[in-house]
Amino acid sequence: MSTHHSRKLTGSLVLYYSAVTAGTTIFFTDFGWRTDAQAFQTANACGASTGAVSDGVVRWQADGPLAYGTQIVIRSVSSPKANVGSATGTQATYNSSVTPPLQYITLASPGETVFAFTGTLAAPTLLGAICANPGGWAATLNNCDFQPTASSLPNVLNNALNGNRNYAFAVLPPSGSGYCMRLKPRLP
Question: Quick check: is 80 in a domain?
């Protein structure tokens, strides 16, 4: 069991969405959400090996209109790609930029938090998040904290109205990894 905790999962992000128009863009990140500011952590915020040095960002864009309930699979680690639309790594992890090959969302063991958002990493509009961390949401997470899998629950996502959005996403580790996560959307 302890070997699972020492390796990275190379999984996928799956997005189920309401009807989508061509050009719709959604970003995904495993950067942690901070409690000392309503923002994502940054790498090396307070010197070497502080903040989120193993987190990155992937951009997905629709290349045409998509029907409600379309399943989109995004490979998110290195050379991101999608089965529908296009996926691009927009911010590699700090660690992989120092020691290539470049990686983006690495889905660290034993758990991870992944956010879907529009806008920019510095000024995001959060769409949703999945916390697959066995410890759950962190009570505190500051920019300088070196906690690669931790995240606090953003206030904007901590309300009952969020369940009324017409999309869902899941983090899918590779088969045989011993980790499994599925999220079934509510389709009418």
Answer: yes
